[in-house]
Amino acid sequence: MAVAGCPDYFLHHPNYQQDNADRASNHRPADLIGPSFQQSSNRNSPNHQEDDVDLEALVNDMNSSFESLYSACSVQSETAPLLQNGQVQRPGPPCSGPAPLPPASPRQKVRRSQPMHILAVRRLQEEQQQLRTSSLPAIPNPFPELCSPASSPVLSPGSLPQCQPSDKHIVKVFSEDGTRKVVEIPADMTARDLCQLLVYKSHCLNDNSWALVEHHPVLGLERCLEDHEMVAHVQAAMMSESRFLFRKNYAKYEFFTNPLNFFPEQMIAWCQETSSTILPSQLLQNFLNSSSCPEIQGFLYVKEMGRKSWKKLYVFLRRSGLYYSTKGTSKEPRHLQLLSDLEDSNVFTVITGKKLHSAPTDYEFCIKPNKVRNEGKELRMLCAEDEQSRTCWMTAFRLFKYGILLYQNYKIPQQRKALLSHFSTPVRSVSENSLVAMDFSGRIGRVIANPVEAQSAAMEEGHAWRKRSQRMNILGSPSPLHPSSLSTVIHRTQLWFHGRITREESHRMVMQQGQVDGLFLLRDSQSNPKAFVLTLCHHQKIKHFQILPCEEDGQIFFSLDDGSTKFTDLIQLVEFYQLNRGVLPCRLKHPCTIVAL
């Protein structure tokens, strides 16, 4: 059928091109063409007498007629929503109007859909995921009584427990020589547990004297963590430059053993009020009892906030906080001003006091609030007259803050030691029980029946190898007297010997590890290359004793008392003074050691 005056876009329209013979048979030409078009065509017939034709009106009539036809044919496809993957919803019963068109080819078929919201699409995806999950085979439940609901015989895939992410933290711990170890710890690991883990990994002797130290190099502060503190919580409040150190601290609970050495009577207020002497047990009970009100008092140098100047004040330390008196040594409430609170603060030792803060003495300590990280404006810098008073202030701060927790931390290793005491004796095998002590000093060997004689013979045999000179090509020998003697180099394998360190370095090591009675180390002498020096701590004072070599009958001995007591090597010397005080102020108890992680 040729249509005169039809526009070009209408001739190329897809719905117009898909008309075939079947469609033409179902629709009459009179139905397709409107009355206006019929009238115009009649006017164009040869019988019509008027030759003028209104072409614009003719085209408009054609457009309106065919647009109405197109809308009627596509009303069904417009109302069908398009689902996922282009699947069209199947139509229902045919609506009134023109008959439905037969399906066209995939290339010619035009699909139209209504827009859908993104949330609806996501809801469809979730429903499909649930359908896939429910289609999985059921897993037999071996413990139905442990599941919810209790009567469920199988475990559905949706009821399986989800894997929760493990709450782990990475901690870097450094030793005194700069080596470090990276460990992964849970969030609830305490400082005691981490120390025991490091002792196990480093193959150290677990004598319950290891400590984890919080070190701030920028501020020049450090403190030992309490055994019950969470390492992850402390690390979260530390600066990026701060670190943890692993070292010995013999003075952590030493005040429970010797409280009078830590708390002088002139610094305790209620000791001055009573005329009778205070027993050590009663002294500790007053500190640990929360209902009692002990008080530490004395003069301290206090640095003014935001200034470099220091002021000497009379200070009181109570359970409620640290106060100073504005009028001499008065204790009246109107004359007391709060310096720092104990609840949200920690006490630190200042290791660079004179350089950073121009402290009047070397015995400086600091009270640092927990919320302060890298600003030194809120730090309370304090300075004591001597080491004993500084130790008293810092120990009392810990007791007032933690109280009975410190005593529980102190008793835990003692209880473990008591439980393991029954298994401390080594179990001998059958072959060892069949051995007997023999004496081969005479012409004929004999069995030593006396147990005391057998023990002395074993000790003599154990020390006899030290008296024999041997070639030490591997270890070397710094002694010019006997270059090949074993006794001159064997001490270098011991943990208490630190080689060529200075006097100041030995002081720093002893101070860091506790300053308790009997803490010692040995080092090379700087003034005499043939001699050695014993560094010993007594009453919180560090003393040095020179060990001189002496030669007798071609053999070298070492002595502390100008030859009165001589030893073949330094190991024998240390073992002797660990049992006997001799010329020393106290026995050697705690070796100052450094362990590489």
TrEMBL record:
<dbReference type="GO" id="GO:0046627">
    <property type="term" value="P:negative regulation of insulin receptor signaling pathway"/>
</dbReference>
<dbReference type="InterPro" id="IPR035037">
    <property type="entry name" value="Grb10_SH2"/>
</dbReference>
<dbReference type="InterPro" id="IPR011993">
    <property type="entry name" value="PH-like_dom_sf"/>
</dbReference>
<dbReference type="InterPro" id="IPR036860">
    <property type="entry name" value="SH2_dom_sf"/>
</dbReference>
<dbReference type="Pfam" id="PF08947">
    <property type="entry name" value="BPS"/>
</dbReference>
<feature type="compositionally biased region" description="Polar residues">
    <location>
        <begin position="36"/>
        <end position="47"/>
    </location>
</feature>
<dbReference type="GO" id="GO:0005737">
    <property type="term" value="C:cytoplasm"/>
</dbReference>
<dbReference type="InterPro" id="IPR015042">
    <property type="entry name" value="BPS-dom"/>
</dbReference>
<keyword id="KW-0727">SH2 domain</keyword>
<feature type="region of interest" description="Disordered">
    <location>
        <begin position="17"/>
        <end position="50"/>
    </location>
</feature>
<feature type="compositionally biased region" description="Basic and acidic residues">
    <location>
        <begin position="20"/>
        <end position="30"/>
    </location>
</feature>
<dbReference type="InterPro" id="IPR001849">
    <property type="entry name" value="PH_domain"/>
</dbReference>
<dbReference type="Pfam" id="PF21989">
    <property type="entry name" value="RA_2"/>
</dbReference>
<dbReference type="InterPro" id="IPR000980">
    <property type="entry name" value="SH2"/>
</dbReference>
<dbReference type="InterPro" id="IPR029071">
    <property type="entry name" value="Ubiquitin-like_domsf"/>
</dbReference>
<feature type="domain" description="PH">
    <location>
        <begin position="293"/>
        <end position="402"/>
    </location>
</feature>
<dbReference type="Pfam" id="PF00017">
    <property type="entry name" value="SH2"/>
</dbReference>
<dbReference type="InterPro" id="IPR039664">
    <property type="entry name" value="GRB/APBB1IP"/>
</dbReference>
<dbReference type="InterPro" id="IPR000159">
    <property type="entry name" value="RA_dom"/>
</dbReference>
<feature type="domain" description="SH2">
    <location>
        <begin position="496"/>
        <end position="592"/>
    </location>
</feature>
<dbReference type="GO" id="GO:0030178">
    <property type="term" value="P:negative regulation of Wnt signaling pathway"/>
</dbReference>
<feature type="domain" description="Ras-associating">
    <location>
        <begin position="167"/>
        <end position="251"/>
    </location>
</feature>
<dbReference type="GO" id="GO:0005158">
    <property type="term" value="F:insulin receptor binding"/>
</dbReference>
<feature type="region of interest" description="Disordered">
    <location>
        <begin position="85"/>
        <end position="113"/>
    </location>
</feature>
<feature type="compositionally biased region" description="Pro residues">
    <location>
        <begin position="91"/>
        <end position="105"/>
    </location>
</feature>
<dbReference type="GO" id="GO:0008286">
    <property type="term" value="P:insulin receptor signaling pathway"/>
</dbReference>
<keyword id="KW-0963">Cytoplasm</keyword>
<dbReference type="Pfam" id="PF00169">
    <property type="entry name" value="PH"/>
</dbReference>
<comment type="similarity">
    <text>Belongs to the GRB7/10/14 family.</text>
</comment>
<dbReference type="InterPro" id="IPR039665">
    <property type="entry name" value="PH_APBB1IP"/>
</dbReference>
<protein>
    <recommendedName>
        <fullName>Growth factor receptor-bound protein 10</fullName>
    </recommendedName>
</protein>
<keyword id="KW-0597">Phosphoprotein</keyword>
